[in-house]
Each structure stands twice: as C-alpha cells, then as structure tokens.
Design goal:
Two copies of one chain form a homodimer. Chain A is an alpha/beta fold. Chain A has a single domain, classed as Rossmann fold. Chain A is about 30% helix and about 35% strand. Chain A has five helices and eleven strands; from the N terminus they run αβββαβαββββαβαββ. Chain A has a six-stranded mixed sheet with strand order 5-4-8-9-10-11, sandwiched between helices. Chain A has a two-stranded antiparallel sheet with strand order 1-2. Chain A has a two-stranded antiparallel ribbon with strand order 6-7. The termini of chain A are close together. β5 of chain A pairs antiparallel with β3 of chain B. Chains A, B: Belongs to the purine/pyrimidine phosphoribosyltransferase family. Xpt subfamily.
C-alpha cells in the first residue's frame, strides 16, 4: 500500500535497536484519514471472503479494526489483556508470549461474542514475532468459529511471525512488509503479499 | 440520544452492585453502526467549537474517539496507561485514582502529540467518578492546550463525576444520563444535557 509506505518513510522513526516507531499516526496519535484508507485496502483484499466479525486485541488494534469494520459492515470484538471484574466469567482464552517480559499473558473474549457460526477476520497493527495473532487464533479455535484470515498493517518481514502463522495455514496479508532497517532507513519488500 | 437509550435498554445488562454492562456494543464487542451515530451526535453538539484534536484514554475510549474523529476531521490521541518502552520519554502526565484498586495510576501522552496551539475535545465511554477525565484534563493543562469540552457516551448521574467536572468549569455533554438503576431497570434523566 503505497500511501502507507510513504507515511512510514515520512513520519516513522527508527530508534536504537531497530525499533520502528509509528506512534505519530498508528498507535498513539491516530491519523484517521490514513486509517480509512487502510480499512478500504483490507476490504479490497478480503472482499471475496465471507466475514461476520473482526477480532483484534487491545490496545493498538482497536482503532484500526473499528475504522476497517465500517467497510465490512460487521461488529468488532477486541480481546482483553487485563483481568477485569467487568469481563464475563465465561471466556475463550489465548496465551501470548511476551518477549519483553519473558512470560506468557492471557487474552480473553467473552463467550457471548464469538460463536461457531462466525467467520472471523483478525486485524492488528503489527506482525513481528506473531505471538498476538497466535493468541487470537487460539481464542477463535476455542470458540469453534472459522478463522478466515489475518490482516496486519505492518509486517516485520525479518522476524519469524509471518512464517510461523503461514506455516500454521493461516492466510496473512500485510499492507507493508519491512525486510530490513539499514542505516536508519526502512527497506520494504517489493513483492506485495497479495 | 434516543437510539443509544434504546440500545442500553435492549442490550445493556445490569449486574449485582448496580454495574451496567454495555460490552455487547460499546466496550468489548463494538456496534460500529451505533458508534457512527454517536460520532455524528458529538459532532452536532460540538459543531460550533474549534477543535483540532480529540483526546481519549486507553482502552474503551479509543474506538469511540476514532469513529467520532471522522466527523471532526481531526487526529485522535489516546493517553497510555501502561508503562511502555515504546512511549517517548518526554510526556505529559495525569493521575487517575482507581477506586477498585485503591490507588493512583498514571496516564501519559507524548509531548509530540499535544501542543499549546491545540483545542482539545475529550471523548470517553463512561463518566462515573470522573477520575479518567480529570486525569486527561491534567494532561491537557500540562501541555498548555485549550481544553474545549468533554463528550461522554454514558454518564452515571448518580455518581459524583459530572458534578466535580462541571464545578471545575469543564463543559461536559453526555449522550445518555442514567439517574438510577431500580429493580434491574435503567432510569434515564429526561432532561438532555445539551
């Protein structure tokens, strides 16, 4: 997606340790016009699929999923990371390994909001080590729903997440895939994922 | 907002301890059509105001703010609750008292994303004890930006938050104000807040 790549080049920042910061437009401040273009692009990619619900995980996936859902005309459900007294007792759970914290945490979705009749599209901001989407896949699998595909805004192609998910037979589409960050510059994969 | 009240009556659940659950459409599963109507209503209420940015706090405010921002044509910034190595070091902070946890926690916004030139509209899902919005107000005040008003989807009129905020000279509009929950039924305030 050219507009997204342009935005990453112009407004992304590369910090020490090959950390790409896109908090200018994607996960702290939100560029709503760009999010709409992202939503349209996901709809274009998945237009031939039957989708009844979009699933994401708090926090960074929520705005992207909500804006995109307008083009699919389906509800969004976001998995909760935090233990909350407000969450239903009956939940589908997934485990997400956090490399920064060196441990697993749980994500949960109330059993009320996914059923085996659903056809689920997962949407998230980043695909890096793939742990968040693996956790969401676990939630969907536990519910018996059909996991249609996953759409991510940015894939870090130099990390193993995409490979792991695709080897698990999940269809994954990224709007921009980064193959490397060299001398403070982002190198995109030329070949689009779709 | 009649559509919202209807939705609360039909799809809200009242649990023991006067807890109103709206996770069917507002803060776990998201009814995107309703969120669009909510966004339009906020725009109608604040149409005469100069607004350059919408501010909310993670997690439940994000989808509402993102959808509403489409009608204002401004970016959204969401304050972060969690310490994150990805957050800039230079932040504006606010304190939020959590009654459930019995302690204060911090919310933070990078100094890059609010400036004294901004005219800020705060948007959130619930107004109950007012703590979240007070924390956001602290962030805005620290930045020197102009805090225009706050729009909340549901105000619990039987808690003190609305009074505290209005006494602090903040203009607050709620799309539905609940005055009581009696025998498992919601009693709305007849008098709209605007």
């Amino acid at each position: 997606m050219e507009l997204l790549k342009k935005k990453i080049i112009e407004d992304g920042r590369i910090l020490e340790g090959n950390i790409l910061k896109v908090d200018n437009f994607l996960n702290h401040q939100l560029d709503i016009g760009l999010l709409n273009e992202i939503g349209k692009e996901f709809k274009k990619i998945f237009s031939h699929k039957k989708i009844t619900k979009i699933l994401t995980a708090e926090v960074s996936g929520i705005a992207i999923a909500a804006i995109a859902a307008q083009y699919f005309d389906v509800p969004v459900v976001f998995a909760k990371k935090t233990e909350s007294k407000n969450l239903d007792q009956e939940t589908y759970e997934g485990s997400v390994y956090s490399y920064t914290k060196g441990k697993y945490y749980k994500i949960r979705v109330s059993k009320r909001y996914i059923s085996k009749e659903d056809h689920i599209l997962i949407i998230d901001d980043f695909l890096a080590n793939g742990q968040a989407i693996l956790g969401l896949k676990e939630v969907v699998d536990a519910s018996g729903a059909n996991l249609v595909a996953a759409g991510v805004v940015i894939e870090k192609g130099f990390q193993e997440g995409g490979k792991i998910l695709r080897e698990a037979n999940l269809e994954v589409h990224a709007l921009a895939t980064i193959d490397a960050m060299v001398n403070g510059k982002v190198v995109f994969r030329n070949h689009e994922q779709y």
